[in-house]
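On clarity, I found the account of how folds are encoded harder to follow than it need be. Since the whole study asks how a given chain folds, the encoding of that fold should be made plain. For illustration, here is how one protein appears when written out as sequence plus structure tokens:

:::
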Amino acid sequence: MPADTPPALLWADKQLGRLAGLLALLGAVAIVALMGITIVAVTWRYLLNDPIFGIEDLSVVTLTIVAGAAVAYGGRHGAHVSVDVIGFVAGRKVTRITNAIMRLLAVTILTLATWALFTKACGIEKACITNNFSIEHRPFYYFLGVAIGVYALQVFVQLLTGLYHFRDEDPNEIGL
């Protein structure tokens, strides 16, 4: 970010970067665990001809951690796909406004998703456990909620930064 960005936004951006890095570290550990689970499952199933009961449950909950970490880290580092057709057609004067609207809508949707994961995710109690080991899904929904919440905060900081640099170049925009 440019040096003339307000210190509060710079601080918030830095803290969100650290939090996204921590979540990415958890995701990396989960990927290593998922690789181990897969190796054990394939070995037991095909070499020993004895599938392990419930191994799918472990894979599912581990993959939930990987997905949540990917959302937060990808949001921080611009890994999510976006196409800016308006920038090619209308130029910077229009994209200033459309970027602010898009970020406001994204923050709204991400905040609603976070709220839903914390309050409404399990729904029917029977659907809140895995099939074999009855591992509770709720903590993993909370982890997804935290990850999406971090992404929502990142987009909110981008919105505020974009509004601060409304007349200049937006530091969060991809250059054309």
Observations:
- DSSP finds five helices and no strands in the chain.
- The longest helix spans residues 7-47.
